[in-house]
Fold:
Amino acid sequence: MSFLKKEFELYKNLFGKYKLNIESLKRVPDGKALEAGDVFVIYGDILVYGVVIEKNGDLAECVLLSQDVFLSSSKALKIKVNHLVDYVYVTHVNFYIEDDFAKNYCEVILNVKEDINKIVENVEELEEQIYTGPRKEYFDLLIDQISLLYDIFFEKIFDETKDEDKIIEINIPYVSEFALVAGTNSLRGENFVGIVEDNTLKVYLQDDAIGKKGKLIFKNQVIYEGELPNAFVSNNIKVSVEDLKRFLVIEVID
Structure:
């Protein structure tokens, strides 16, 4: 058995049965909204560390920080936190947190705003990598462990776009060569955010794009053209999250 396989089996045996759930979340005293550069921790059956790479309105785009030096990418930046762990490591896994959740459950432990550009560049580098073997299993498990964060974000967005006439179903006729979508993940474009869950892609447009003429483009192919809805949905996709992040574009015409 390889060293990484042993490391993953150890992690799985120690922490694999744990995941965030709403009942076990610990409220933090004097909580506040997150800001760009904040490194924070969420306390539950597991500890979840994250860093805010961008803040738009009441929505913080965050990147998950790994606590395992060996299962993290060898190219991952490390951040010294001097918390319950000494260091955490940047990953390619992103998620979104709204101010209401942050004020209740996110404890800010430091701010690295001066390093945010370097962190974003590192995230982009990590997104380019193909994860296989124990590292892929590790990140798949991490994503499953924080699936509550995706569920909370999706439920709120869905409530805001539940009118069917504001949602358009699309088809992306493309199959990724590697890393087909598994579990739950999120992505962000210039004027949209997206959730991939159970091979279904849901894309939610920013308010200033809704109702305008525009195009949804993937790999330079126009998938939809017309009045932009609140959301797009594509079922049974065979496109990796990495390709979606790289090639999915919504272009506003007017």
